Amino acid sequence: MKKKLIFSSILATLFLTGCAKQPQYIGDQNSASIAPVTMGIDRGDFEKAAMDATNSLLSSGALNKPGGGRYVVAIDNVINDTTQRIDTDLLIKKIRIAMLNSGKAVVTTAIKVGGAESTLSHSVRELRDNDEINQNTIAKKGTMIAPDMGLSGKIIQRNAKTYKGDQLVEYYFQLTLTELASGLAFWEDEIVVGKIGSNKTVTW
């Protein structure tokens, strides 16, 4: 009898899972090329947001430095305002690569909110006056380059129910490029990724 109850429970679970509406993108998201779709933020979402953001940034002319040359960009705060534990570098790293490949900007790893991304630039300078190190090979004072621009952002999640009882989830990828000397935003954009699926599907 106990085995029959367990078997019945398994069948019921499989039936409910099979009947649940599979998550899908809303709007024109080229969802056919991105599968499977989840209600949470996945790789396809980061790739779309990064591609749309970099296309917008590079076409805006915000990185066209007067007189030529390249801007130095530092990474500012990128806030995760979602119910999920995500590494925002999954988004920012793709944008950084695109900026570097464009030839219009370089990214400093020595200056970043919360501490340097690469501590080696500072560590080698601590070797000054170390008799074991050839002092002519150590970076001189005043050689580190300060950033011209700061890239900041925020990822926002909004959940709602449709009139049919389905779950609608929207993710807002907001990005801002600020000129640090003036504090003025040279570029901003917002990329929205929307998904709809069963209300039984979790987003985390």
TrEMBL record:
Secretion signal: which residues? 1-20
Pfam families given in the database record: LpoB (PF13036)
Please tell me whether the keyword Signal is annotated for this protein.
Answer: yes
- Keywords of the record: Signal
InterPro entries for this protein? LpoB
Task: Report the protein name in the record.
Answer: Penicillin-binding protein activator LpoB
